[in-house]
Amino acid sequence: MPEYALYPGCLVSHRYPHLELAVRKITETLNVRLDTMEGTSCCPEPQGVQSTDKRTWMTLAARNLAIAEEMGKDILTLCNGCFETLKSVNIRLKRHPELKEDVNQTLATIDKEFKGTIRVKNIIHLFDDIGISTMHLKIENPMTHIRTAVHYGCHMLRPSDILEVVAADRPTMLDHLVELTGARPVEYEGKVHCCGYPVRNFDPELSLRIARDKLFNIQRSAANCITLLCPCCFSTFDTRQALVNRTFGMSFNIPSFHYAELLALSLGYTPEELALNRHRVKLPVV
93: part of which helix (H) or strand (E)? Predict the structure, then answer.
């Protein structure tokens, strides 16, 4: 049985617990054990904190990594931002002994040490360990009626050398996993573009324009929903879609799935079991 240290992150834990619920359901079905990490902090967030104080950003991330090391398990993240921070710091400290030593001097004051003994994975990397053939056998309710625009999110793809992403400008990994559920990914302009979330705090209007343009391209593609990996992107397309409509006089009504939700539906779970009523943009395609 594969085992992971679960790092749900701030946004999932406090605003979108139904996304973690879907992950719990699929891992239960696929015989994967998740042990929640206790005593963690924010990852911390990969843009604002890193830009303000990179050493603090690395030290806080190293503390989270050390908790997983004490558990003896690789980390499984549910958020692209958490994935980028934790994997980036994990790789950089392993590659640069002087950074590792510097960070560990601070961690020693709280009886922690980063050793570099575990790996960091996004939820979609879970299936590399399980095996696609095993997942095929578990599909009970193929989502063949769904045409979906796959949105990877910035922090899943870049920096591609650190995150070990092949062809970051034309990714296919999530598309293939969507196909496994029976749904059909559709191509659209700006597929790897940002959702607009990262700039919402210092330029709210720009953030909404970016989201509007992305939603416009998705609407043109004839997709009937969006499939994504990140709670921040989910916030943009689900929670803030009504704000985009009010701001620009649009009438978008495009529901969003976290991939774990889409997979859970194909595994036979009902919308009620997954608390899909928590979505702001309702899911008529279910």
Answer: helix 80-95
What are the start-end ranges of the E strands in the chain? 3-7, 33-36, 75-77, 120-122, 147-150, 184-186, 225-228, 256-258
Whether the CB-CB separation of 81 and 155 falls below 8 Å is answered with yes
Query: Can you state the percent helix, strand and coil of the chain, rounding each to 5?
Result: 50, 10, 35
> What is the C-alpha separation between 255 and 272, in angstroms, rounded?
16
pLDDT per residue as tens digits for the range 150-180: 999 999 998 888 888 888 889 999 999 999 9
What's the fold here for domain 3-124?
Glutathione S-transferase Yfyf (Class Pi); Chain A, domain 2 (1.20.1050)
Closest Cα to residue 40, out of 19, 14, 59, 68? 68
Q: For the chain, what's the residue count? A: 286
**Structure tokens given for 149:** 């625009």
**Which CATH entry fits the domain spanning 138-278: 3.90.180.10, 3.40.50.970, 3.40.50.2020, 3.40.50.11810?**
3.40.50.11810
pTM: 0.94
